[in-house]
Amino acid sequence: MNNLKSLLLLLAIGVFLVSCKGDSDDEPIVLNAGTLSGGPFSIIVDGTPDMVSGISLDASNLVGSNRTYVITDDMNNVLGIPPTLEAVEGVDFDAAGTGSCYIYHLVYEDDLQGLEPGLNTNDFVGDFDLSNFIVVVRNGLNAGVLSGGPYEFIVDGNPDMVSGVTLDATNLNGANQTFVITDDVNNILGLPPTIEAVEGVDFDAAGVGVCLIWHLTYEPGLTGLEPGMNVSDFNGAYALSNALTVTRNGLNAGVIGGGPYEFTVDGTPDMVSGVTLDATNLTGSTQRWVITDDQNNILGLPPTIDAVEGVDFDAAGVGVCLIWHITYEPGLTGLEAGNNVSDLEGFYALSNSLTVTRNGLNAGVLSGGPFTFSIDGYPDMVSGISLDDSELTGSKQTFVITDDQNTILGLPPTIEAVEGVDFDPAGVGVCLIWHLTYEDGLQGLAAGKNVADFEGFYALSNSITVTRN
Predict the structure, then answer these.
(1) Alpha-carbon gap, residue 108 to 115, rounded angstroms
(2) Helix, strand, or coil (residue 205)
(3) Which of 83, 276, 321, 417 could anchor a disulfide with 356, C-beta 3.0 to 4.6 Å?
(4) Any idea what the Cα angle at residue 159 is, between residues 324 and 340, rounded to 5°?
(5) Whole-angstrom distance, CA of residue 214 vs CA of residue 216
(6) By three-state DSSP, how is residue 420 classified?
(7) Beta strand 41-44 with 134-139: parallel, antiparallel or unpaired?
(8) pLDDT digits (tens, 9 = 90+) for 302-327
(9) CA 175, 181, 186, 188: dihedral to nearest 10 degrees?
(10) Are 68 and 83 a contacting pair, CB within 8 Å?
(11) 37 pLDDT higher than 70
C-alpha cells in the first residue's frame, strides 16, 4: 500500500510538471527596450552645432525583433528616428531652437504603426516598448538682467541722463553684447556699447515720449541691429534682457478753473472773476497768461490772475476769447500779441483754456405779416405784431420803420405806436418794420438817416414787410 501511494504521488507530480511546462509555452513575449544612460544635456541655442555624447544602452534584457532610437519634443511628438547611437550623437540639437528633447530607445515588432516624424508616441499601435528617456534642454541666449529706474524727466532743454544702471551677468551667455535704446514701439534709437555710454545719453534731446533701455547678447550673423530698424525684425541668434523705462514728460502748465464766461457787448466793461490755477503738477521756469481769439491769435499776455481779471472783454467786440496759462523755458520765440500760439517755438506748454463768449446785443424776434395794402386814400394800419423778447438785451429799445433801402421813415416807440401808423400816405413802395435795442451814445438814430450809418452799440431784429401797391 505504501508503494502504491508513493507511485501515485510521483504520477501526480509528473502531471503537475507537464501542466506547468505547457502553460509556459503559451505566454506572450514581453518586449524590453533596455535602459539608456547619459546626460541630462543642456545646450545654448546660438547657431553653433550642439551634439550629445557619452550615451550608452544596457541591452542585457533587450527583447524585440526591431530596434531604433526615437527623438521627441517634450510632448512626445516624434522629431527624428536615428537608427543607432552613432546617429543619435550626430544630431545637431541647436537647429531645433529652444525647448526640450527626449531621446528614447525603441524595440518593436513588425506590426507597429505610427512610427514616423510628426506623429506622437502615445499613438503607437502594435507591439513595442520604449526605454527610459534622456533629456536634452535647449536654452536660448541669456542677456542678463538690468536694474535701475524707472526714470522720469521733464523735456525742457536741459540735459537729462540716467544713472545707477546695473547688469546682473550671472547667467549671461553669447559671443557679443551691446545695449540698445528704443522707443516704446521698439524702434532702435541708439546702440551704446557700455553702461557708461548708456549713462551718457541725453534723453531730453529725444523729446516727449518713452524710451526703453535693453541689454542685447547675440551671435555673429545677426541682421537688423541698426538705428531706425525694429528689434522685432532681428534675424539671427540673440536675446534681449528686460527693459528699463525712461519717460520723457513735456512741461506742464497746470489746470485752470473758472467760467465759462458770457457777456453782452454793450459798451459796459465786462471782466471775468473766480479764475483759479491748480499748480500741483506745474513745471517750467517761467509762467504767464495768454488771451487769444478762437483761432488762437494772441490778443494779450497778462502776467498774473489779477491782471487777467482786470481785462475788459467788452472792448474786444463780439466773438470768443480763450484764456490760457503758459509755462516755458528761456529761448521761447513767438510769444507776443498778434502772433498765433501754433507758431511758438521752444520748450513750452499750455494749460486747458477758459472760454469767454462776447455776445452782441439782441433785439428779439418780430412776428406778424407780411402786410399788403392798396394806396387808395383810406388809412392802412398793420395789426397782430408781436415781439419775442426772451433773448432781448440792451438798455434801450424802440421800433424803426424804414423804406426798402433802410432809410429811416419813423421811430414809433411801442407796438401800439407801430400799429397806429397809417402806411397809405407813404405812397406806393415797401416799408420795413424793425425792433431796435441799443445803448447810450448811439448815433444816427433819426428820421432821414440810414440804419447802415449807426455808430454805437445796437442790434436790429428781423424785419416785417409792408407792401404798398
Answers:
(1) 10
(2) helix
(3) 321
(4) 25
(5) 6
(6) coil
(7) parallel
(8) 999 999 999 999 999 999 999 999 99
(9) -80
(10) yes
(11) yes
Residues in CB range of 331: below 8 A, 6 or more apart:
157, 346, 347
Where residue 275 falls among pLDDT bands split at 50, 70, 90? Answer: very high
Query: Which residues, including other chains, have CB under 8 Å from residue 48's CB and lie 6 or more apart?
Result: 94, 219
Three-class SS state of 310: coil
Matching residue, cell 516755458:
328
**Three-class SS string for 132-173?**
CCEEEEEECCCCCEEECCCEEEECCCCCCCCCCCEEECCCCC
- Give the whole-angstrom CA distance, residue 285 versus residue 311: 25
Question: Quick one: which of 119, 32, 33, 110 has its CA closest to 71?
Answer: 119
93-118 pLDDT per residue, tens:
999 989 999 999 999 999 999 999 99
**Cell 394806396 belongs to which residue?**
375
Placement of cell 550642439 in the chain:
50
d(CA 410, CA 424): 14
Whole-number Å distance between alpha carbons of 121 and 75: 9
Separation between Cα atoms, residue 359 and residue 268, nearest integer Å: 13
Q: Residue 327 is placed in which grid cell?
A: 509755462
- Cα separation, 362 vs 262, in Å, equals 14
Q: Is 190 exposed, middle or buried (CB count within 10 Å of its CB: 0-12, 13-18, 19+)?
A: middle
Handedness of CA 198, 204, 205, 211 (dihedral sign): positive
Q: pTM of the prediction? A: 0.67
Q: Residue 29: what pLDDT?
A: 86
From residue 187, alpha-carbon distances to 162, 269, 305, 349 in Å are 20, 56, 44, 27
φ/ψ of residue 315, rounded to 5: -70, -15
Residues, the chain: 469
The answer to whether 398 and 413 have CB atoms below 8 angstroms apart is: yes
Positive or negative CA dihedral for 56, 61, 67, 70? negative
What distance in Å separates the CA atoms of residue 230 and residue 180, rounded to the nearest whole number?
Answer: 11
pLDDT interval class at 169 (50, 70, 90): very high
Q: How distant, in Å, are the alpha carbons of 205, 225, 320 from that of 395?
A: 59, 76, 23
